[in-house]
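Reopening this one. Same input as before:
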Amino acid sequence: MKYILIPVLYALSLCVSPVAFADDNRKDAWGGGTVVTLTASDQKKVEQDLLVASLRIEINHQDSRKVQAEINKAMKKALDLLKSDPEVKVSTGNYYVYSYDPNPSPTPLSVAEQKKRIVWRGSQTLDIQSKESQKILDSVAQIQDMGFVMNGLNYVLSTEVAEAGRDELMVGALKKIQKKADLIAKTLGRSGYEITEVTVDGAYMPQPEPRMMMKSSMEMDGAQLAAAPVAAPGETEVSLSVSARVILKPVLNVKE
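Same output, byte for byte:
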């Protein structure tokens, strides 16, 4: 049994030694200092700068081809109006056509009778946005005169402004990290500190925006044309957090 125990002990020593070696390397890399993880965050409200409008054209007819032709015609007219201004970005949205029975019969009907009662409805959305808010408002008024109705009109924060806000917050958060590290180092009597890792996590939190929903074109038949829309920007809260790994340097031993 004595001869068997010696190889086993030797094998265990081989398994343990790499762990101790890794700890020694880590200690050497830190220079005997204490590692501290610090976090800091900041937030600010930024005025929204991008006005976004969503409109839709809605057509009802017994002929599905007529519905699609009218939608296509209206969309082309609106796009021709908007594409001339490079400061206004335009995109088209959902386009759908479906059939329905506006007055369902309580009794079964023949196929021929059902076809006579069917009405086709089609719709497509048009989205426009610009930092030049007056251009959006003027364009919306003209497009509404073409038969479009409003889905929504609201201000948002553009990516560029949000990014600039986060950069400003990052500078402030890093200064907070430095102050915290300096305070800890002085409190513990350390000779200084070194920041080795920094993680930045920024995000902006859009506030709920009011959506202005309009009646369908069927409900608006005979109604007066709506007055030109108005809009005022709100504020969006931008936030950012920073975490850092800090090494507190050991106290220097000064030899007399």
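So the earlier flakiness isn't reproducible anymore. For the record, The chain has two domains: 28-49+157-256, 50-156.
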